[in-house]
Amino acid sequence: MPRAPKSPAAKEEPVRPATNVTLYDVAERARVSGMTVSRVINGNAHVSEKTREKVMKAIGELGYTVNVAARAARVGTLRVGLLYSNPSAAFLSAFLVGAMGQCNRSGAELILEHCEDLKTQRKAIERLIAMGADGILVPPPLCDSRSALKHLKEIGMPTVAVATAKPSPQASAVRIDDYDGARSMTKYLLSAGHKDIAFIKGDPEHTPAQLRYQAFIDTMREEGLPVPAERIAQGMFTYRSGLVAARELLSQKVRPTAIFASNDDMAAAAIAVAHGMHLQVPEDIAIAGFDDTPVAVTVWPELTTIHQPIGDMGRAAVEMIVDHVRERRAGHEVVPRHQLMPYTLEVRESTAPAEG
Amino acid sequence: MPRAPKSPAAKEEPVRPATNVTLYDVAERARVSGMTVSRVINGNAHVSEKTREKVMKAIGELGYTVNVAARAARVGTLRVGLLYSNPSAAFLSAFLVGAMGQCNRSGAELILEHCEDLKTQRKAIERLIAMGADGILVPPPLCDSRSALKHLKEIGMPTVAVATAKPSPQASAVRIDDYDGARSMTKYLLSAGHKDIAFIKGDPEHTPAQLRYQAFIDTMREEGLPVPAERIAQGMFTYRSGLVAARELLSQKVRPTAIFASNDDMAAAAIAVAHGMHLQVPEDIAIAGFDDTPVAVTVWPELTTIHQPIGDMGRAAVEMIVDHVRERRAGHEVVPRHQLMPYTLEVRESTAPAEG
DNA sequence: CTGAAAGCGCTTACAG
DNA sequence: CTGAAAGCGCTTACAG
User: What was the pLDDT predicted at A117?
Assistant: First the structure.
């Protein structure tokens, strides 16, 4: 493989800085009891600001980190439920890598439950609860299900939606700005001199598909380049649907100079179709994707795409749900949080400046 | 906050059967001390056979499982190092999912270290040790490096090689039988009526590549179908190398009726090349892969392939390394173990009976 | 708002 | 070969 896959936890921060400093070391230095330190690190409200500061200072100076194993021994292992239906294999495994890594660091346990469709989701949620889930993570496409989120809200289960494009204000969410990402890609293609760009839409049920398309249309329009209907093809985020869509787009009398597929699987399919028509990529047709899943660097030429930090999102989602669970246990109200992760434009070989 | 009690009708194997039975419950029932139970569950040698049996019986009756969090609190979290260089992204993430899941269940922690090539591996091993690794997992292609394994052996570090085709008797290994798997695939193609089968070899540095090729050749020969040189193409396990190899194989005057690529990335490339030549898959040319990585079900038609249980191998490797570390701590000699995982032949749409 | 005590479930010395 | 005691680092009652 040409490039080393991103290692999930390798960089970040040492898995756990094998510190021998305990809560009591902090207590001693801050001249308080261990109890008080415990309160501070758990965000308990009943600590004076002054005391909290003293403790935080000592924590910083000593480089203290909580021993999650000891905490888990006392408090019971916190269980994070993952309710998933049918995201792509690539998405799920990248997400799991991040989520599991963080569970490990947080001393939590990940339990998975599959649910085939929206009808069975209530049962899946109940199974997760029966298995002792303290909080639940909801990746696409379930994260866009109002009824799933509503059900979870009603039963008071801490919830984090992942990779939804239109987050509910009622529930926490970890996501990228799909609109912005698609806008960046469109601008990049424009700046490379492409004017006649075709677009492959994704599954209309997925909110990211809608926003990516909208961003493309809006950005083109802003440049005074309205997109005719024959430059838009409907896909379903699958490779196979990309095959059909790309065939449709490339069999026009006048071909576009670039295709922006709204995910990598469809972009990979577009490359295959182009090659099948003896078109060179990117010389005859530039092709771009979205997500930066493993297939993006498997195909040749490698795909220019928007890198969605799926592993980091899994990590962040677990961090957030763990916070929520602990807030709840501490008797606090759980306020929904929305975390926007940074995406990056990965320019690779499948795109190049337009000719002329 | 107390966790809701588990329903007795538990699922398969709940992540951890949240049993409330402790070591002392077992001790009481077996009429021994907690210390003795601890010795038994840790495989300590200094327990009489009779006592051990009593304890095991009580454990079974009570459904006791050790509380890994409590153990970790006492004994320090066990750290499993993962030394990897450049396996494909798909392999690594599938492996990580299995390995991390098992680490979670075992109360261990996974720490990753990348090493670019064989020259830097010694340093990578030292970094892993500095980070507190108690045992090290070595996936391909490093698992085939004699010098890496030798170094680890010399410093007395418990080691498990993963997915090597030619395991060293000196080190533990978790793998599938690559020879057998390739033989199964070849037999399947033969049974479907194919006689003229081409083969795309993998990176000659990887032991699985060698065995898969050998199995193909041997099986064909047994059937009285020796394979001419023009039916063999050299690949490197990458998509791009598969593109080149497939082009070579399919541009012969007389085309084979099937191509067996020794991994999925190359098989996916072969499909793309076939489509580019306006050949139908599987009607005009059947194509098979090996590994069953996500790309196998991303491309269309989906790939017939040998399913290598990569996630399970990650799980098994962690289980084994944890055993080794604990054996070592208990003062036992670590005897290398070799675990063969089951592969399965996944017949999908990319192959069909030969015509005629 | 803060603290002294007890205990989570297990293992490490130390005995016998 | 077996056990009584102490303690891992943290948190949960219970006080004040």
Answer: 74
Min CA distance, B317 vs chain A (Å)?
A: 17
Nucleotides of C under 7 A from a protein CB: 1-5, 7-13
Report CB contact under 8 Å: A127, B7: no
pLDDT at B87: 65
**pLDDT of the residue at A11:** 31
Selection from A290, A296, A266 nearest residue A344 by Cα: A290
Burial A145-177 (b: 16+ CB within 10 A, else e): beebbebbeeeebbbbbbbbbebbeebbbbbbb
For chain A residues 299-338, those near strand D by a CB cutoff of 7 A are 329
What is A178-307's CATH topology? Rossmann fold (3.40.50)
How much of chain B exceeds pLDDT 90, in percent? 52
With contact defined as beta carbons under 8 Å apart, do B120 and B85 qualify?
A: no
Q: What is the pLDDT of residue B162?
A: 94
Q: Coil, helix or strand for A276?
A: helix
Q: Which of B350, B223, B26, B110 is nearest to A8 (CA)?
A: B110
Q: Are A261 and A248 spatial neighbours (Cβ–Cβ below 8 Å)?
A: no
- Taking residues B125-154, report their average pLDDT: 87
Domains A76-176+309-341 and A178-307 share a fold: yes
Q: How high is the mean pLDDT in each 10-residue block of chain A (356 residues)?
A: 34 43 90 91 84 90 87 85 78 85 85 80 85 88 85 90 91 96 98 97 93 98 96 95 97 96 96 92 97 91 96 95 85 88 97 77
Who contacts B20 (Cβ-Cβ below 8 Å, separation ≥6)? none
Is it the case that residue B277 has pLDDT exceeding 80? yes
Q: Give the per-residue pLDDT at B19.
A: 58
Distance A143 CA to D13 C1' (A): 39
Question: What is the DSSP track for B26-77?
Answer: HHHHHTS-HHHHHHHHTT-S-S-HHHHHHHHHHHHHHT----HHHHHHHH--
- Domain locations along chain A: 18-66, 76-176+309-341, 178-307
Q: What is the mean pLDDT of chain B?
A: 88
Question: Do residues B295 and A295 make contact, with C-beta atoms less than 8 angstroms apart?
Answer: yes
Residue among B187, B167, B189, B188 at smallest CA distance from B177 = B167
Expressed in angstroms, the distance from the first to the final Cα of chain B is: 69
- Report the C-alpha gap between B60 and B37 in whole angstroms: 13
Q: What CATH number was assigned to the domain covering residues A76-176+309-341?
A: 3.40.50.2300
B278 interfacial to chain A (CB closer than 8 Å): yes
pLDDT-based confidence at residue B111 (cuts at 50, 70, 90): confident
Find which nucleotide's C1' atom is closest to B71's CA. C10
Q: Which helix (H) or strand (E) holds B313?
A: helix B310-329
Nearest to A97 by CA among A9, A203, A210: A9
Q: Which residue is nearest to nucleotide C3 (CA to C1')?
A: A33
Measure the CA–CA gap between A351 and A258, rounded to whole angstroms: 8
| Cα dist from B30 to A96, B36, B46, B334, whole Å | 41, 10, 17, 30
Residues 143 to 202 of A: which have CB under 8 A from any B CB? none
Report the pLDDT value the prediction gives residue A16, as an integer from 0 to 100: 39
Give the closest residue to B80 by CA, choosing from B119, B143, B138, B126.
Answer: B138
Instruction: Read off the pLDDT band of B7 (50, 70, 90).
Output: very low
Residues of B in contact with A76 (CB under 8 A): 3
Residues A73, A75, A80, A81: is their CA dihedral positive or negative? positive
CATH number of A18-66: 1.10.260.40
Residues 6+ apart with CB under 8 A from B217: B199, B227
B253's CB contacts (< 8 A; 6+ apart) are: none
Q: What is the pTM of this model?
A: 0.82
Beta-carbon separation of A275 and B278 below 8 A: no
- B-chain residue closest to A297, CA distance: B89
